Input
Amino acid sequence: MSQVIPEKPLRVVVWSTGTIGRHAIAGIDAHPDLELVGVWTSTPDKNGKDAGELAGLGRELGIAATTDRDELVALRPDCILHAAMTDDRVFESIEDLTGFLRDGVNVVSSGPVILLYPQGTLPEQMIEDLAEAGRTGGASLHVNGIDPGFANDVLPLVMSSLSQRIDHVKVSEIADYATYYQPVVMRDLFGFGQPMDAHPLLWEPGVLGSAWGPVVRVIAAGLGLTLDEKLVEEVERRPAASDRSTVSVDIPAGTMGSVRFRVVGTVDGVPRVTLEHVTRTDPDSEPDWPTPLQGDGGYRIEITGEPCMQVDFSHHGEHGDHNVSGMIVTAQRLVNAIPAVVAAEPGLLSALDLPLVTGRGLVAKAGA
Output
């Protein structure tokens, strides 16, 4: 399938103005095939403020943010770019997304990440309810980003097209999270800064398989693999050697400072697809763990077989580090996918269902 080029600009609403939403506003404003028509905020103090101000653009866009859901749906946008926090309200956010589909609005969303490829993770009835909502409203939903997302679905599957034989695919995020601003994720879900005997949600049995299992399953689906029924979860947490501070949470010495985890898909007991995260809050800690090829964060794709291949992918913000650019690339993967999602058949879409998505129209003009 070739890339989709709309005949006229598509009307888009951005849902939230936080760490991803503000970049989504900027991305839509810069995209020649998209038109920003509305912005939703959950913060009463932001109600009525101009989207340009909320996105930090230094100029007004003539679009006032609102806390009124129905007001935005009544605009009949072609698509909602949903960038609201979903990690701590997975099922409530699924209800929100289902409602948009039923109302006939296409959605691209950064979460909940379980919807990146829910087959094998969510109950079949929940998946069917989403699909039915899409059919009822004639709308599609695509959940993606950078991780889970492009770095561990499109990129490894494109690399696999060079393979003669594949023994194992491993996708890794290797990053310093010290400048990653998500206090709920860092403190409550990961447990950074908490005692080593604490029990944060992410390390409870089955949670990793639900959160990152869809990555393993979408790669397996792209390779035509039938995985063993239960994914393997592996976690190693280590304490901070000294007091340290991050933008999200203070980490006293002896509390959790680093974590390395894996979700592994096996076939007849043999590991075939592995998702790994190596997450530090000090770039010099855990020297025995994998380190980025450059900078303080990036992604690594390793395919063993014939031939053996490795790609290291890093990014860095023009006005910030890899955690800033991580928000930008997450937003832009969604922004640039909008034409393809709007043109697709109704239902729940994974990366396997989309045509080529590019940065068409985004090459900077001379002097810009």
